[in-house]
Amino acid sequence: MELKIQGLSKTYANGVKALDNVSLTIPRGMYGLLGPNGAGKSTLMRTLATLQEPDNGAAALGDLDILKQKEELRRRLGYLPQDFGVYPRISAEDMLNHIAVLKGVTNARERKDLVRGMLVRCNLEDVRKKALSGFSGGMRQRFGIAQALLGNPQLLIVDEPTAGLDPGERNRFYNLLSEIGEGVIVILSTHIVEDVMDLCTNMAIIHKGKVLYEGRPDAAIAQLSGKVWQRSIEKSELPAYEQKYRIISNRLVSGRPSLHVYSEQPLDSGFSSNSPDLEDVFFSKIQGWS
Ligand code: ADP
Fold it and tell me: What is the pTM of this model?
């Protein structure tokens, strides 16, 4: 089974073209949808989660038409939105029980086992009686995953899952995600390159509603081989370098700017060839250089 997206477009009432003829084929496993803020990721995720309509295009999960068979799709979908907005003053356990009812688990005993199992799996057992409104960022994220995984979805959509987590919480979240069965399609929408690098076997880069790359992260990196150059400069030299070179990134290392520059020709005068990473890929694609 795969998720096939064909020619999805969406222009909002204010004239913003959030999706511009997006086509993607997403296999089972962890799939990274990488793009800067405003790229159109949430619009695409919400469309796939049947929460909004596109203007044009089609999307299918296996032989299921996502845009037409919405109820069917919802039964096979787990969705972790960027933010739930309101965290009610009811316990994690009661909330999961309620969601299980909504997902159609009518047998009380079966539901109890299901909810208990999910609390254990997401490391929430100790806090199951605690009100969601008092949860920390990491606990909210684990609760989000627990509610998304209830009912064994075939398609799991997680939108910007690590924004706002500290490194420890992020690691725990990564581990939880990577335990999810290989049989599930997991779409991880993010602007954080590391999330994709660490977790995803396949990916797409989107920017201004358009797909700029679709494939494996390592293949994207290989395409950039020999085209990334590094050099440390003085701060005062920066404007001149910005004029002359295609600067992928400019990071301070011990207080001095360290540049990554895109060039298909070898660069002289103090530049050295640098092995590209996914961040170099991301920025040079978004700039339209590669
Ligand atoms: P991302 O999730 O990648 O940050 P979004 O899909 O949220 O991107 O937004 C894509 C573009 O569409 C942005 O320019 C955003 O401001 C605009 N946008 C998103 N939702 C709406 C809306 N409901 N009405 C108008 N413009 C919107």
Answer: 0.90
